[in-house]
Amino acid sequence: MAAFLRARRARVRPEDVGLPVGVGLRRTPGLRREELAALAGVSVDYYIRLEQGKERNPSSAVLGALANALQLDDDARAHLFALADHAARRRPVRRPPARTVPAGLRLLLENLRPCPSLVLGRTGDVLAANPEGYALYQGLTDWPPEQRNTVRYIFRHPLARTLFADWQTTAAGAVADLRTVLATDPEAPDVAALVEELSAASPEFASLWARHDVRRKVGTQKAFHHPAVGTVTTTWEVLRTSDDGIRITVFQAEPGTPDHDALSLLALAEATR
Length: 273
Prior knowledge:
This protein is α+β, with helices and mostly antiparallel strands. It has helices at residues 2-9, 33-40, 44-51, 60-69, 74-87, 103-111, 131-136, 150-156, 160-163, 167-180, 189-201, 203-210, 258-272, and strands spanning 117-120, 126-129, 220-226, 230-240, 247-252.
């Protein structure tokens, strides 16, 4: 919670909240502690204790005031409240992440064909996929099953930067979604291990992680430059099956469109291969 507050405070400029910029060089990026404390209606000493991790039980009113002052969106606001619940020990630590894919989900993957579909764990681990799903993430199967992870793929696979038409947005979204896991388990060892690996391997990941952006994955459009079928724009849906972190991602296109034909061609190419 303390790290989240520090990072988000540094991103709010005085002019964003109606404060005068002043003259001279500001040593603090974003708002000063006393400025944020004044905006939230709390004492400077109390806010400093929050940022130092010494105050662990802020009220809902204080959290709401801080969220408003920091201009947090709905996802980031919910994340702050969840972190505060953990800091105050109001929320039990969740069970270890689920990794077993029920037979029903494996059957669903088969029935979703030829739409590329994957079953992902909470950190992006690929727990199962249909052939088209593996074909869409070109080169993913070059790695052994225990290393197949969509976040790792985005930052570490040599083909990812050319596969995703908008790699920067894809990368930022993946990191922001990974941050949401900390709302359910702030000391998640699987998140810590993946963050340590990718921070060492990718300066871009380290920079995005330090921003403390929080955004839950939702359906949107995603375009690929795939070597087998060319450019294809898909509608990407995220289906959450339960509260254990497992989700299904499905890539589809409107029937009768060139994008739909491209997905059908991808399925045909995979079947031929």
